[in-house]
UniProtKB/TrEMBL annotation:
Similarity field: Belongs to the TRAFAC class myosin-kinesin ATPase superfamily. Kinesin family. KIN-8 subfamily.
GO MF, any single term: microtubule motor activity
Gene Ontology terms: biological process: microtubule-based movement
Keywords, sorted A to Z: ATP-binding, Coiled coil, Microtubule, Motor protein, Nucleotide-binding
Location of the Kinesin motor domain: 22-359
Keyword Glycoprotein: no
Keyword ATP-binding among UniProt keywords: yes
Record: residues binding ATP: 114-121
Name recorded for this polypeptide: Kinesin-like protein
GO terms under cellular component: microtubule
Length: 392
């Protein structure tokens, strides 16, 4: 097997170039919330070692014996994080190798799946004190670029968008919905705002500024109160980081390499219709289910090794087309609550994650073409200045 996961889930991706890999699946349990504590609800999840999750509806032996139910189930993932795992730990285990791969001209994607309140946004965005995967990935990416080149040969493009109600919107510059179209790089959202930064930039991306940018983007996410949960997020947020650079190939031609990292904070996976039956909610719910259902269909098709993967069934899967199969390294983080109050949602999430483990991916060599990059102008599109402008 050309795939290896070491103790603690440190993932080695170097040796899968050009070979076959599978989606990496992680589970993260968030701490018990204040509300759950107040109710005194017990836990239904136990991380038994660094990889195994034990899920049981019943607190004590007698209950499941009396009710003639199954005792509980063990699931194994590439790594499982307890409620005390740090953001840094989660980033290093799940995503840092993808950042490395993107710098070699490959695509990678990380997506958080789980019910509303399970910790997806905390994992992806985090807080100023505890920045999440998106922020740590960008910081790490820039650190690595700086180590590698100081000649301006790397250009990084950053965009942040959402899919809400089967509509694609720009989170960095809210306005009219964006139209998806296909070009030679795959599916692109026409007119999407792109922040650019060069490896010669004096001031590199710093966590605080990236955080400010993304937090502001998150405020543009469409969230509406529902009866069940006021912070229910019905939108999928996608951060795309594209790295372009020039290298010489074996015959000394200058080639342009492009690597793309997509970091996705999916909408809540709970059944939307259970929370509110009224029309608008139902329509939204149907569309959210459409995107998540389409994602499930794609995953099933990939699992079964089907030739046709139904990416076209939703906006989300169109956008994720190059992030789920093909030339991509894919990571899924399943977020769950530890509380029995969320048992059925946790069970759904864990089953979904367990299924996703079966996906096999063909990881191809680096994306490159012989077209030279446009000449780089160093005074162009300074990210930091734009950020400062945005924050004024
Ligand atoms: P989701 O995006 O899945 O709806 P959130 O990320 O907003 O859920 O998490 C719900 C609440 O739990 C938030 O207040 C968040 O700060 C908190 N939370 C989630 N995961 C963690 C964690 N690992 N450590 C500390 N707090 C967390
Ligand atoms: Mg959220």
């Amino acid at each position: 097997e050309n795939f290896a996961v070491g103790y603690g889930g440190m993932v080695e991706l170097e040796n899968v170039v050009g070979g076959e890999s599978r989606i990496l699946v992680f589970v993260r349990v968030r701490p018990v919330s204040k509300k759950e504590k107040e109710i005194g609800s017990r836990c239904c999840v136990k991380i038994t070692n660094r990889r195994d999750v034990y899920l049981s509806e019943f607190a004590n032996e007698n209950d499941y014996l009396r009710l003639n139910r199954i005792r509980g189930r063990h699931f194994t993932f590439d790594a499982s994080f307890t409620d005390s795992a740090t953001q840094q730990e989660v980033y290093l285990t799940t995503t840092s190798e993808l950042v490395e791969a993107v710098l070699q001209g490959r695509n990678g994607s990380v997506f958080c799946y789980g019910a509303t309140g399970a910790g997806k946004t905390y994992t992806m965005l985090g807080t100023l004190e505890n920045p999440g995967v998106m922020v740590l990935a960008i910081k790490d990416l820039f650190g690595k670029i700086r180590q590698r080149s100081c000649d301006g040969s790397h250009v990084v493009h950053l965009s942040y968008l959402e899919v809400y109600n089967e509509t694609v919107r720009d989170l960095l510059s809210p306005g009219r919905p964006l139209v998806l179209r296909e070009d030679k790089q795959g599916i692109v959202a026409a007119g999407l705002t792109q922040y650019r930064a060069y490896s010669t930039d004096e001031v590199m991306f710093c966590s605080v500024l990236v955080m400010a940018l993304l937090q502001q983007g998150n405020q543009n996410r469409t969230t509406e109160p529902t009866r069940a949960n006021e912070t229910s997020s019905r939108s999928h947020a996608i951060l795309q980081v594209v790295v372009e650079y020039r290298v010489r190939d074996s015959s000394m031609n200058v080639v342009n390499r492009v690597g793309k990292l997509s970091l996705i904070d999916l909408a809540g996976s709970e059944r939307a219709l259970a929370t509110d039956q009224r029309t608008l909610r139902s329509i939204e719910g149907a569309n959210i289910n459409r995107s998540l259902l389409a994602l499930s269909s794609c995953i099933n098709a990939l699992v079964e090794g089907k030739k046709h993967i139904p990416y076209r069934n939703s906006k989300l899967t169109q956008l994720l087309k190059d992030s789920l199969g093909g030339t991509c390294n894919t990571v899924m983080i399943a977020n769950i609550s530890p509380s029995i109050l969320s048992f059925s949602e946790t069970q759904n999430t864990i089953h979904w994650a367990d299924r996703a483990k079966e996906i096999r991916l063909k990881v191809s060599d680096a994306n490159e073409d012989l077209l030279p990059l446009p000449e780089i102008e160093n005074d162009q599109a300074k990210l930091i200045l734009e950020l400062e402008k945005e924050n004024r």
